[in-house]
Fold:
Amino acid sequence: MRTSAQPHVALFDEPGPRTRRMIRLASVVSALALGALVGVGLWVFASHGQLAADRWTPFLQWSIWSYLFLGLRGTVEAAALVAALGSVLGLFLGVGRLARTRVTRWLCTGYIEIARTVPVLLMIYVMLFGLPQLGLNLPVLWKLVVPLTIANAAAFAEIVRAGVLGLPSGQAEAASSLGLSRGQTMRLVVLPQALRVVTPSLVTQLVSLVKDTSLGYIVAFTELLYRGQVLASYNRLLIQTFVVVTAIYLVCNGALSAAASGLRSRTRRRDPTGVVPVLPIIDTHVA
Amino acid sequence: MGIFVSDVGSLLAALGTTITMAVIAGIGSIVLGVVITAARISPIPVLRGAALVYVQFFVNVPLLVLLVVAVFALPDAGLMMPLTPTAVIVLTFYEAAYTAEAIRSGVNTVSAGQIEASRALGFTLLQTLRLVVVPQALRAAVQPIGNVMIALTMNTALAAAVGVVELTSSANKLNLVQAQPILIFSVTGAVYMALALAIGLGAGRIERRVAIKR
Structure:
């Protein structure tokens, strides 16, 4: 029986008694090495008094958490806006890149290639320092959301395109032989299946988008990292505050990542060959 | 174009910083990524778990948080280094998680039949890896690694947020003096696009050169 802990492809046979001994030995040695690494880290922190109880007890107060959770709300708000705007824009761009009209194709391809290869921080600097010089000063939230939407729309478009291209061409051929127009084929046959196949990738992109909202730190938008920074400069507990901020990011994004890999394995289970995408049966399960 | 000429020295130096950071962090993250992937597919449960934890940590925590921690918080614990090396180290650790995923996706493209065949021929685990899996996995991973390297180059810009003087921050400084945002920021964007294009073309070339002709 292959358990889920084992890799996708079985690289090695069921180990015999000698190999099992070797594995046990290697496990002990590597556990000791990793433990030593953690130990040295803790020792460095302890020797500078960073592990002292009075530096951590402030985080037992609800007021600190509610202060940080207000930042988390900003993170969620920005991420939701970027996800909504970026996925709609990305859907059109991804389909447009596959359009028959050359101009549409070129415009969409050009946008995607440019937006993918310009750093988001550069676009944020344009919002912060460039546009105000030209008399256009957006609200703080939009200084963050606009650059992130521009960048993430390109990422969403590439995922959509991969899904459409990954669908067997027989689907679109069958649709057009039934007399559906190209638009109808895309809307009624291709996209519903393609989007279902790429759902895990879309969720993974959501994780990267939530991470991107930490750039709100630069535009001084009230999100988690910015709140953490303000809190740390107030209580002077830099390491402790950022450990807590990191942990919050880990929990939120870890849940999203787990959802993505859950969706991925569910698709694989339903369709072990991976050739034919999941059939569009009406699904009562809400993912 | 005159505004670029007056500051050409500092702009070229800043571009140099960006490229140096990308090259060092790129090589570092590929080496570290190979080590992590090796641990990830090894038969030793402890190493496999540690590699999984490593990847999950860096995939789920924003790079900017790590940079802020390394630059502003870690000195409190006595861990202090010059600014640019700190940023390069953080970038290396961060992108190594993504390179590891790219290499692992390459390992997953090697079909189970290949591995079963090599085991049927009596190859040991190391022989299977060295002679069958790694040669095919690395070829399949060239394009994904290239994409990670492009993302890494874009991410060097984040170092500007913690004070490293590289391309993005010096473009910003130039704009604050010259007040020509459209020109300055589009030229800077074009430079990043050129870097990404160079990496993409390079990856394509390597992929074609190492491809197995069947």
About this structure: Chain B has nine helices and no strands.
